[in-house]
Amino acid sequence: MIAADHPPPADSSDRLVFRRRHRLSGRRAYAAVHRRGIRKPRGPLIVVGLPTGAGDARLGLSVGRRVGGAVTRNLIKRRIREAFRLSRPTMPAGYDLVVMVRPHEPATLDDYRRWLTGAWAAIDRAAARRHGEGSAGR
User: Fold this and answer.
1) Domains: count for the chain
2) Domain assignment present for 48
3) Coil, strand, or helix at residue 29?
4) Domain of 98, in residue numbers
5) What is the pLDDT of residue 132?
6) Mean pLDDT for each consecutive 10-residue tract of the chain (138 residues)?
7) What integer pLDDT is reported at residue 92 of this predicted model?
8) Residue 38, SS3?
């Protein structure tokens, strides 16, 4: 395979990337989302979202051993991260999201994207109603 077969993107700034700043990390961050966040189940996912007012949305994952072996859990996490990466530009910014995964057979990327965006939009609407937060309340 030759590099000319796969030219680079016209503008590298248009690439959708999942950087460290898009990751939720640390016990305190997860605890804050669980304590004050809005929970919305979609399919095998339970998405908990907390409006932060910060620029970028951040994603945290919780995939327990009950979901399956390491290979299955990692496949599911990769697909959810990819769904987040692809959906982030079209979804409301300024949220910390924790996605908890219930036991299920791995689904397609499109399924995870549909579940994640549906829950994220519902969280944004609930935040706007509840606290005057979210993109609808700004």
Assistant:
1) 1
2) yes
3) helix
4) 20-129
5) 59
6) 46 56 85 94 96 87 96 96 91 92 96 96 92 53
7) 87
8) strand
CATH number of the domain that residue 59 is part of: 3.30.230.10
Helix (H) or strand (E) holding 39: strand 38-42
SS (H, E, C) 54-96: CCCCEEEEEECHHHCCHHHHHHHHHHHHHHHHHHHHHCCCCEE
Per the CB < 8 A criterion, the answer to whether 49 and 85 are in contact is no
Answer whether residue 64 is part of any domain.
yes
| 65 within a domain of the structure (yes/no) | yes
Give pTM, 2 decimals: 0.80
Asked whether residue 117 is domain-assigned, the answer is yes
Give the model's pLDDT for residue 110. Answer: 97
